[in-house]
Structure formats: structure tokens, C-alpha cells
Design a protein that fits this description.
The protein is an alpha/beta fold. The chain has helices at 13-24, 30-43, 48-55, 59-72, 91-103, 114-121, 125-134, 153-165, 235-248, 268-276, 294-307, 315-331, 342-358; strands at residues 171-187, 206-219, 225-230, 254-259, 280-284. It has three domains: 13-77; 91-134; 153-192 and 202-345, Ribonuclease H-like superfamily/Ribonuclease H (Nucleotidyltransferase, domain 5), CATH 3.30.420.
Length: 361
């Protein structure tokens, strides 16, 4: 407004140092940092209009914080307490909810719900829900876990991860596994197509038409998959698949095969075949460590994108569908990239073991 005189700002050395620290510190709230810049600019003799133009704010904002500083100094730059309803849930109530959730169970259930816990502790369901969200508690969920008991766990992890991260020269690394007992299923009624506002619908019951077993070898460098379908999954079928790999991989390359500890992979027949084909080197993952097999990730894609919602009236139709999907995959393969080192994996497992040991379970 015409005739309004801007408050004069003169800073002491201590005030200037504090304002500069607040303005530059990365963890300072953006609002407080802006107020500090307003005061520092005012101390240099700039007008309110010049400060507003420089900082991209309004004249009224500059005037407000300039006057607040002139009246209350540094204390004037902090936010005033906001009006509102006082807290109705004390810290003791929060502690009681958390302790009850973690250390007890209801008499008629395996875990608490918001309603049952609210009745137990004397709070509202909404309050219990807010506390659970704030502390990341989800009693209705349960994950699974398993630690390998393989005595050579560390050595096998370093061996397999070393292959993933630093594959040897003039060699191909294949991650091999079998997806057994793939069922050819047909619904008892036609699948109803998706409509606006209505998802596709299928009957819950089905007719079994037989099973098939898929052997797959994922090339870690290219993402391509060598596959073979069989009626069963015995050592005989695994040997046939090794013969297929021997035929598909160029003869001048060493073949490093990452696979699990299934008994069909270690029979005398397989050992004799490997002795006759020394370019094949097997690398076994630790027991109970399917997460180390990258081909499992590819099996997941096959399941979710093709098998889960397909219908097949015969094993022949199932096999034809699987082969077509694999051909499409190999037309544009996408290799999976392993990123964690063996040391990072072992450190993560050690932290988890320490965590469950400290939990008292």
C-alpha cells in the first residue's frame, strides 16, 4: 500500500549465522528456509517487491515474515501452534494396542481384527486401525519363510552368484529346471468374456485331461529358452533334455548348468552321461533355495501370462499352446539381470537370522 514503510532489518552475527544455517541445511523445512532467505535479503536492504520478485513469492508474504522477524527475531520465523482438537489417544493407549497385538491372541481366533482388538482395549475401531497403519502392523497377513540347512550353503551361493555376475569366457550359463505336473484343464462351461464393468468369468470347477512336464533351460546372457516337453519327469527325461542341450549349444562352448538337488539330476545314468560329455559342468543350488534359480522367474511368467487362465481339452493342446508361447518369447527374449553379490545375500540372511533370534521366538 502507498506510504507503508518496510520494517528495517539489522542482523547480529549470531542471527546471520543461524539464518544461513537454516537456509542451507537440506533437512530444514522448505517454508522455514524461504523465510530465512526473505530476512537475509531484507538485511541487504532490498525492498519487499524486489525480494518477492527474486524468490517468486507475493509481496504480502515478504511483508508478513519481515515484520514477524522485526518483532520477535528468530522466534518469529517458526510456525505458531495451530488450533485443533486435542489428542484423545494417549501414548499409553498406543503402547497397549501395540503390545496386545504383538504379544497376545484373542480367545476365539488366531489373530486380532480391528473390531476384536478395539473391544479388548476399549478404543474405537478407527483408532486401532490408525495405530496399526502408523506402525506397519497387519495381523491378517502371514508370509512364509525357510532357511536352507545345506552344510555347503555359503559355498554354493558364492558359486552360483559368481556365475550370474561373472560368467566365464567361451561358455554359456544355463539355468535349468522342470515344471512338472502341468495340468490340461477345461472348464465345465465356456468362459464368459469381459464386458464394461464386468470381468471375464470362469466356472470354479474343471475337468482334468492329463498332465505334462516341461524342461526349460534359460540362457542367462540372451534370455532365450531351450525347452522340451515330456509325459513324465524322471532321470530318463532329464538325460534326453541334456542331449537336447548338447545339440543346441555350439560344440566349442563350455556349458555351465545351474540346477537344483532333485534326485533325478544325480543318478548313475546322469553321472555316466556327464563323464562322457566333459564340457557340461553342473552347479547345484543349496537345498530349499529355489530363489537362486532365475528360470523360476521365467516359469512365473509362463504361469501368469499363459497357463493360469487357459483352457485345454487335451495334453496335446496344452503342449501346443506352451510351445507357441515359448516361440513367441524367443522371438523377443528379455534376459533377467542378477544384481546382488554373494556377500550382500549372506549379510541379508545374517541380519534376518539376528532379527528372528532377537524376537524371542
Amino acid at each position: 500500500m502507498p506510504g507503508r514503510v518496510a520494517a528495517v532489518v539489522v542482523l547480529s552475527e549470531a542471527e546471520r549465522s543461524q539464518l544461513l544455517a537454516w537456509a542451507r541445511r537440506r533437512k530444514t523445512a522448505s517454508g522455514l528456509a524461504m523465510r530465512c532467505r526473505i530476512v537475509l535479503s531484507a538485511a541487504e536492504g532490498l525492498t519487499n517487491a524486489a525480494i518477492a520478485n527474486e524468490l517468486g513469492i507475493t509481496d504480502d508474504t515478504v511483508r508478513k515474515w519481515r515484520n514477524r522477524f522485526a518483532a520477535d527475531r528468530l522466534d518469529g520465523l517458526t510456525d505458531e501452534p495451530r488450533p485443533g482438537r486435542p489428542r484423545t489417544i494417549a501414548d499409553t493407549d498406543v503402547e497397549r494396542v501395540i503390545t496386545t497385538t504383538l504379544e497376545t491372541t484373542p480367545k476365539d481366533a488366531t489373530h486380532w481384527s480391528t473390531r476384536s482388538l478395539a473391544a479388548e482395549v476399549g478404543l474405537s475401531q478407527t483408532a486401532v486401525s490408525r495405530i496399526w497403519r502408523a506402525f506397519g502392523l497387519q495381523p491378517h497377513r502371514q508370509d512364509t519363510w525357510k532357511l536352507s540347512k545345506d552344510p555347503f550353503f555359503i559355498d554354493k551361493v558364492r558359486d552360483v552368484v559368481g556365475l550370474y555376475l561373472n560368467p566365464p569366457e567361451r561358455a554359456v550359463v544355463l539355468c535349468v529346471d522342470e515344471k512338472s505336473q502341468i495340468q490340461a484343464l477345461d472348464r465345465t462351461a465356456p468362459v464368459l468374456p469381459m464386458l464394461p464393468g464386468t470381468p471375464a468369468r470362469a466356472t470354479h470347477d474343471y475337468v482334468r485331461a492329463g498332465t505334462s512336464s516341461l524342461y526349460a533351460a534359460l540362457n542367462l546372457a540372451t534370455g532365450k529358452v531351450i525347452s522340451s516337453l515330456h509325459a513324465r519327469h524322471r532321470a530318463i527325461e532329464f538325460k534326453k533334455f541334456l542331449v537336447t542341450l548338447d545339440r543346441e549349444v555350439p560344440a566349442d562352448l563350455t556349458v555351465h548348468v545351474v540346477l537344483d538337488n532333485a534326485s533325478t539330476h544325480k543318478t548313475p545314468t546322469i553321472r555316466r552321461w556327464l563323464l562322457a560329455h566333459p564340457r557340461f559342468v553342473l552347479h547345484f543350488t543349496p537345498t530349499s533355495s529355489s530363489w537362486l534359480k532365475l528360470v523360476e522367474r521365467w516359469f512365473s511368467e509362463l504361469t501368469t501370462k499363459k497357463l493360469q487362465r487357459s483352457t485345454h481339452r487335451s495334453v496335446r493342446a496344452l503342449n501346443t499352446d506352451i510351445r507357441a508361447w515359448i516361440e513367441t518369447w524367443n522371438d523377443d527374449p528379455r534376459p533377467y539381470v542378477w544384481t546382488k553379490t554373494a556377500d550382500q545375500i549372506l549379510e541379508s540372511i545374517a541380519r534376518y537370522c539376528q532379527r528372528i533370534n532377537d524376537s524371542g521366538h
